[in-house]
Specification:
By secondary structure, the protein is an alpha/beta fold. It has a single domain, classed as TIM Barrel, CATH 3.20.20. It contains ten helices and 13 strands. The longest helix is centred in the middle third of the chain and has 19 residues.
């Protein structure tokens, strides 16, 4: 992408919603020119009470892929613990065909123990163990997406010359790795990722990006090959800050009476521009924005129609 291009991603939360509004929100984002469409890969709600409804991620995004035309589609991000990685590569490939070549394989180590316990999914003894599993999964998934017929005889995953037929429509179906752990996760991005997703303050993202560049140098990877995406939290835009905060509070009450997230891009268009602009200075131009149910149409529209043009002009 040209260096001046700003990309917007819509992460429409799949919790505390019914199907029709969820699908309509994803279609709206696509029609507004958002560049990427996402949802979570969770089996219980993760914001507010976990005693509530949520749709399964891959099936949800398969339907979104079939109902949209432009934006890429994927999970922000897939839970590696949930599925065999060879199966994940096959699912992502199928999603690529459903979407006519718009799939992204988002993946991370997973973290929400409650849902693992409830569903009987092995959680692992520690974050380190889950990251070891991810490190074992990534070359298997990459090999399948490249049509290499990879084998694996690891401690976690076994595969034998596994075929991926038909192959993806994309010549290189991108793998996006979520997380910013400096020792393991960012090294995995350097080794296997086509994109990363990092959240937090500008200074935190700047520090993590410097570490990613160091890992790329260590493994002989051109860091310019890796697309940087940044999670921007929940966006609410109104003409006044007070009204934006009121709407923000209502949205979080709807989502299992969740505690309100602080320090979010909530306010006037000028407030949101001020929040986004510093990330451009450190090379992060793909902003993944959360849109919880009931999916605030005004904020989604104003972000695309008012905020993005002014950021591009700057």
């Amino acid at each position: 992408m040209p260096a001046s291009t700003i990309k917007l991603g819509a992460n429409c939360w799949n919790q505390y919603t019914e199907w029709d509004p969820f699908l309509a929100a994803q279609q709206r984002a696509d029609s507004l020119g958002y560049d990427s469409l996402w949802t979570w890969d969770h089996l219980y709600p993760i914001v507010g009470s976990d005693d509530g409804p949520i749709f399964e991620g891959y099936l949800a995004m398969a339907a979104v892929a079939n109902a949209t035309r432009q934006a890429t589609v994927g999970l922000m991000v897939g839970a590696n613990t949930f599925r065999n990685p060879a199966l994940v590569a096959k699912m992502a490939t199928t999603l690529d065909h459903i979407s006519a070549g718009r799939a992204v394989l988002g993946i991370g180590g997973a973290w929400f123990e409650t849902e693992h316990t409830a569903y009987g999914i092995e959680y692992g003894k520690s974050p380190g163990e889950r990251l070891r599993w991810l490190g074992e999964a990534l070359p298997l998934m990459r090999g399948m997406l490249h049509g290499e017929g990879p084998s694996s005889n690891g401690s976690r995953y076994i595969a034998e010359r596994v075929r991926n037929d038909p192959p993806p429509l994309q010549k290189r179906l991108p793998i996006l790795i979520g997380g910013s752990g400096p020792k393991v996760t960012l090294r995995l991005v350097a080794e296997y990722g086509d994109a990363c997703n990092i959240g937090g303050s500008v200074e935190s993202v700047r520090q993590k990006d410097a570490i990613l560049r160091q890992h790329c140098q260590a493994v002989g990877r051109d860091e310019r090959e890796i697309e940087r995406t940044v999670g921007m939290g929940t966006v609410v835009i109104r003409d006044s800050r007070d009204e934006a905060r009121r709407v923000h509070g209502q949205i979080f009450q709807h989502n299992g009476r969740a505690d309100l997230w602080q320090d979010q891009p909530v306010g006037t268009p000028e407030d949101v521009i001020e929040r986004f602009a510093p990330y451009l200075e450190i090379g992060y131009r793909h902003f993944i924005c959360g849109f919880p149910s009931p999916y605030d149409e005004e904020s989604m529209t104003r972000l695309a129609k008012e905020v993005r043009p002014r950021l591009e002009a700057a």
